[in-house]
Prior knowledge:
- The complex is a heterodimer.
- Chain A is mainly α.
- Chain A is built from nine helices and no strands.
- Chain A has helices spanning 2-31, 37-48, 52-76, 83-121, 124-130, 135-171, 178-188, 191-218, 223-253.
- The longest helix of chain A has 39 residues, at 83-121.
- Chain A starts with a helix and ends with a helix.
- In chain B, helix 3 runs parallel beside helix 5 (141-153), helix 5 packs parallel to helix 6 and helix 6 packs parallel to helix 7.
- In chain B, the strands form two sheets. Chain B has a six-stranded mixed β-sheet, sandwiched between helices. In chain B, strands 2-1-4-5 form a four-stranded antiparallel β-sheet, with no helix packed on it.
- Chain B is globular and about 50 Å long.
- Chain B is an alpha/beta fold.
- The longest helix of chain B is centred in the C-terminal third of the chain and has 18 residues, at 171-188.
Amino acid sequence: MISSLGLKLFQKINNFGKFIHFTGIILKNLIRLNVKPRLVLNQILFIGVHSLPIVLFTALFVGMAFSVQVVKELLRFGAPDLVGGVVAIAIWRELGPLLTGVVVAGRVGASITAEIGSMKVNEQVEALTVMGQDPISYLALPRVLALLIFMPLLVGAADIIGFFGGLLVALSTSMINYVSFFTSANTMLSVFDIMSGLIKSLFFSIVISLIATYFGLKVKDGAQDVGKKTMESVVVSIIVIFGLNYLLSVLFFA
Amino acid sequence: MIKIKHLYKTFSNNQELFQDFNFSVEEGENVALIGPSGCGKSTILRYILAMKFPDKGDVIIDGKNVALLKENELSQLRLNFGMLFQSAALFDSLSVEENIAFPLIENYGFNLSDCINKVNYVLELVGLEGFNQKMPYQLSGGQKKRIGLARAIVTEPKYLFFDEPTAGLDPITTTTVENVIIRLNEVLKTTTIVVSHEKSTILRTAKKIFMIHNNALLDFETPDTISNTENSIIKDFMKG
């Protein structure tokens, strides 16, 4: 049993080493800009633009739900003038980047892993290699770059829509008006709060795209393995996003 | 010229795949590799294409040991290769003409319009003129193989490899694909290696037939000698 545990631990360390090596190759190619712009644009369209509706819907309803709670509690303590600021800080600092990260990991990360995994099973990745193309440069790098470019835009849009959702709910009470909501937000929210969320989104985009492409290229054994690796990719991405979000919050605000 | 010298490969469960395996193909030869499932026929192709590497031994192509080449040198070497995969390996998101033009566009910087004449020429060679705009999901298994073949030859490679080109096809489509390969051998005079289980494919498309048995290669036969071979292993294999 100890030897089997040791073997599993060794495999985990080995896999982590391979992931670091993969990340190194991506970074090297990224620095050299060894990527075809056409491929990046295609991915921006698919990864970014098509993710916009689900990200905006999620942000709108989370903003509204959060506002329901905040309005109720702050009215109880006689502080309706703080609602706008609390909603804005929560959304820009935490909820916007975190929820967008989770949604993108589920939608985009899963689709990247499944697509590359299916290409692996159907020998298309081998075909790329035979035709003189490096699969990492051709498949992984454009996706990493596209997400790196588009993720801050998604988070920015999610922040605005989430804040708007919070505003709608707050205005539905007679105690809070448009002016007090915006004044409170304007007083409490700083540029650094906005920037911290966008910086977080850059980290999340790298995590999601690296994990998704790595797991896709690791697929070996047919359709079942595609499903398994897709699930693993999403689970690992989400866990890493939550952990990283905590670390970055500590770094920025503790 | 392709030369494989003293190749060894053992899996982690100590199962040996190759033991002092030697194999060579001269320029312009049409060779078939046969043998039971799991004997390593397709693996040999992967070694030649430098997509996998053996534990020990050399794979030498045009005097270059592939294990010693850098990634960019390998990419350059692979420009001499064309490969028809068992699954045809067409890119689902690209049309037939985009699939065929892919190596020209990505490796030589052409636009699709620059190479459309070449695409049409190879489509004609594989007997699928006018299929330019179709998507892979609109094609039958045999048509996919022929498009895969068209993509493999569009760069006029020095070496062509066929991994089970007729596996899973009906007899009529099998004959069609075989006819295309024979025609290509005649027209392009390329060096070819066919890996196959199908008797008719082996006999019709190759001039030298090698069988892998017990981790090594048996003496070669020709389509004329193989039916009367005295080698009982080859005889049994061909009998089925």
